[in-house]
Amino acid sequence: MRELEHLKQPYLFKLKKSQNVIKLIYKHHGKGEWQTVNAGWEACSATIRMAG
Fold first, then answer.
1. Using the 8-state DSSP alphabet, how is residue 32 labeled?
2. Which residues 6+ apart lie within 8 Å of 20 measured at CB?
3. Are 48 and 21 in contact (CB under 8 A)?
4. Paired residues of 43 in beta bridges
5. Are 20 and 26 spatial neighbours (Cβ–Cβ below 8 Å)?
6. pTM, to two decimals
7. How far apart are CA 46 and CA 24, in angstroms?
8. b/e for 8-42, b at 16 or more Cβ within 10 A?
9. Rounded distance, CA 11 to CA 32, Å?
10. Residues 5-40: pLDDT tens digits?
């Protein structure tokens, strides 16, 4: 991911929906922070620390 960020290349990866990820989604859902990005898709930027 760092290489893609360095090249300013957008990327998409699948994140396992652990309990903390689900909490993060619900925390931001309904706050109006989501932006429509393409044909029915919405995006929001947040940071979460992964462990394991």
1. T
2. 48
3. yes
4. 35
5. no
6. 0.44
7. 8
8. eeeeeeeeeeeeeeeebeeeeeeeeeeeeeeeeee
9. 23
10. 888 877 766 777 888 888 888 887 777 778 888 888
Alpha carbon 11 to chain centroid, angstroms: 11
23 in Cβ contact with 32 (< 8 Å): no
Non-local CB neighbours of 12 within 8 Å, separated by 6+ positions: none
Amino acid code (one letter) for 48: I
Alpha-carbon Rg for the chain in angstroms? 13
Instruction: Give the chain's length.
Output: 52
Question: Which residues neighbour 32 within 8 Å (Cβ) at sequence distance 6 or greater?
Answer: none
Q: Do the Cβ atoms of 28 and 36 come closer than 8 Å?
A: no
